[in-house]
Queue: 2 jobs
Job 1
Amino acid sequence: MHHGRHGASAPNGSSPGSNGNTNLLWNTPGGSSLRALFLAVTEQDPDTRNHEMVKSNAVLSFCFMFLLAAGMPVWGFDGMDVVQVKKMAEAGDADAQSKLGVLYASGVGMRMDKQEAARWYRKSAEQGNPVGQWNLAFMYVRGDGVEANYTEARELFRKSAESGFANAQYDLGMMLLQGMGGTQNREEAGKWFRTAAAQGYREAKQILNELAAN
């Protein structure tokens, strides 16, 4: 699943794992991480895959930490300091709520607290913010601050994807392709990959090429 820079509510952010934006990344890492998770279990037979899913969060967590070490989570505050972000979030601004979740999740400017991150992502998501929905989905994928739940993650990715967020469109496609959190549906997965690719999402283009070659 993916991430992109997101200073406000633009729905088609890019992911550090794909397009390498060097501006503020207000989203937590996910795209390349989730792809690594999928690839780790794709080669397994169905019975083994079910068993491997139990261990998949460890794989994803490793990839997540790698991206963190590479400096992916937050490069700055987009002209806003932590106090401003928190004040706006508490006032009900959905973008600020998602940003505050990122700060708690990454430990930038405050003590790292995954449960608090999930709480703020949820507030943002409940207002229909696509980045808040997407970030909360990853908390459910990883089991960070919430109990891991692929079904809930898939639903949140879908809501975000339907809002036009390319990162979520790709990630929803990956869940559909692998049957995570619900029934496998390669046809619908392809639809979401094409939708993300049309927005310039590089990894969506890559997976479409891979699927066409198989």
Note: Residues 22 and 138 are 22 Å apart (CA to CA).
Job 2
Amino acid sequence: MSAPRPITARATSEDGKKSVFTLIGELPNLITALIRDEIEQIKREAVVRLKSAGIGTGLIVGALVFLYFAAWVFVATVILGLSTVLPPWLSALIVAVLLLIIAVVLGLIGVSRVRKGVPPVPQEAVDSVKDDVKAFKGVGHYDR
């Protein structure tokens, strides 16, 4: 029989596994690194989403400027076309009422959409943090 091995303060055993005390000692550094990495992931995801949203918003504003001028040309054309069969003042009034109705309908639809709007949350990062919390608690699916 071989003699029992003495207890030593080695970081790893002969088979390459770390001791419990070494793992507990590394835990604060691992948690700090995990939190730091999660914050970096949130930052990267937010930058990508906001950059895309910013470019899209700029393009929409450019399109709206051209649409604004085109709309006035169209309104003038409709008024002039109606004035061939109606008095000009009545043609202008009809077009104005139609434009007002369209504006009210679009405004109401827009308000309802804004209320339903999704907040710009970095969902992947939030899910990752939730998975990390579950793994820390020892529940759920996680890599070992």
Note: Residues 4-10 have pLDDT under 50 and may be disordered.
